Sequence to fold (125 residues):
Amino acid sequence: MKKVIHTQKAPKAVGPYSQAIEINGTLYISGQIPVNPETGEIVKGGIREQTEQVLKNIENILFTAGYTRDDVVKSTCLLDNMDNFQDMNEVYSGFYLKDPPARAAFGVVKLPLGVMIEIETVAMK
Fold:
């Protein structure tokens, strides 16, 4: 059965979608952007700060749904500039310390609200 996941500890959706959907032991987290859920504003700083906020938002959704970082099996990272890949990768590697998930990273022309990064995530139990 499909279950909609929502938490105040992650940004509200900026469109007609859910923060996450769980079905049959799989959690699909919509692309998260670096918005601080407490202020509703994009975090200040560069790609490192934005990546940290995105990963915090993902972790809060995981926790709300009863999952952990260790349950993540796939991430898709969207960057507005592939020159930021190395810095993003350093922050990302500090989030998944053991058995990191499969991942793809793409450079895109533009992301919502003019952010530098968006990450979508899939987790399984």
Notes: Residues 3-124 form a domain with the 60s Ribosomal Protein L30; Chain: A; fold (CATH 3.30.1330.40).
